[in-house]
Amino acid sequence: MGSGKVASRGTVSPVAFSRRTGWDRRPNPLAERLEALRRTGVPLVDLTESNPTRCELEYPKQLLDALAAPEAMAYEPDPRGLLTAREAICRHLAGQGAQVEPDQVLITASSSEAYAFLFKLLCDPGDEVLLPSPSYPLFDFLTGLESVQPRPYVLSFEGRWRLHASLLAEAAGPRSRAVLSVSPGNPTGSFLHRAELAELAALCAERGWALIVDEVFADYGFGEDPERVGSVAGLELPALTFSLGGLSKSACLPQLKLSWLVASGPKEQVGEAMDRLEVVADTYLSVATPVQHALPGLFSRTAGVREQLKARIAENRALLEKARPPGASWSVQESEGGWYAVLRIPAEPGEEKVCLALLDRGVVVHPGFFYDFPRGAHLVVSLIPPPAAFARGASLLAGVLSGPVPG
Ligand SMILES: Cc1ncc(COP(=O)(O)O)c(C=O)c1O
């Protein structure tokens, strides 16, 4: 065995890392306080928990036995994903009212990877993607890592968070190549409605932009509303459109690493996009074979988990609303679906101070600025933690929000 040391033969120049990985990685004051609290071992109620495997859901026994199917011993990759798996995705989407064919589907290891593939397909370095604001903070990383510029467009709160094509057009620049929409939104919980989609798709077609609709939470709508778009997959839209989904939310199985994208819209563009994406996917072949073989069974066997989680989300939302005293200066915003609740709070003393005061009482929530909410007056909580813990957190939250928060 060697010593592990190799003698240097001269000067050592440090490598120059890429600018796009030059993030400011210092923890913010909230992360610092949270870390310090965790080190002391004090019990915390984490109302930011978004990992379903940590939320005491009941999964069917031996659910993952399907990963050991004998056919998974053969490695015969299809860059688009195994046909049987793509057919299973089509059946799952049919449950959301979408009619799509397997050749419109491409399987990826995660929705994040689907974004990376789409940005490679649609953008050259320096091109721009229009992103909703407020929205999911990972988009800045997903674009940055592909050398794509994020260009935010604002959603406006009108009882729900609405997308106005006119605001989108104002936000666009000459290098805009695609528009991203999240339906229902994380964390806004607003679905795209039919009228919004019609305007949006017309604008995209006119400008030559692709439309990407993130539907990872589409299985978690509250109630029924014919105005909501369940899925854009398979719709005859004038623009090239991609919809994204995955097992991490649809089956509460983020650890299995399987997601999909579906291309719809003008036939020729769909064909060209899928052929190019096939080469992108073939370069990585990142989706494991066992999970693709298991997929058809996983959808049906996890239907009960989805239902459990839907009931829990409704229960936790009701607990949160019940914890709010009449006439309180804060409120729970209306939502149409998804895993989160957005709280509107007074502008003073500010989201960060409120979050720090909550941490001191043992409750972890996200400040609105994490998602670029306007006016510094929002908090975000996850609705998927077990109800007993959630009720404790909601009551502590209501106590802090109703009392004086140190300025
Ligand atoms: C809106 C949205 N899109 C995509 C993802 C990423 O999903 P995946 O785990 O499939 O990468 C998340 C994860 O929370 C999300 O909230």
Description:
The chain is α/β, with parallel strands linked by helices and 407 residues long. The protein has two domains: 27-57 and 304-402, Aspartate Aminotransferase, domain 1; 63-301, Aspartate Aminotransferase, domain 2 (3-Layer(aba) Sandwich), CATH 3.40.640. 36% of the residues lie in helices and 15% in strands. The protein contains twelve helices and 15 strands. It has a seven-stranded mixed β-sheet, with helices on both faces. The protein has a four-stranded antiparallel β-sheet with strand order 11-12-15-14, covered by helices on one side. A two-stranded parallel sheet has the order 1-13. Strand 11 (331-332) and strand 12 (340-344) form a beta hairpin. The longest helix has 21 residues, at 303-323. It is globular and about 60 Å long. The model has no long low-confidence stretch (mean pLDDT 96). Pyridoxal-5'-phosphate binds next to helix 3. Pyridoxal-5'-phosphate binds at residues 110-112, 136, 182, 186, 214, 216, 246, 248, 254, 259.
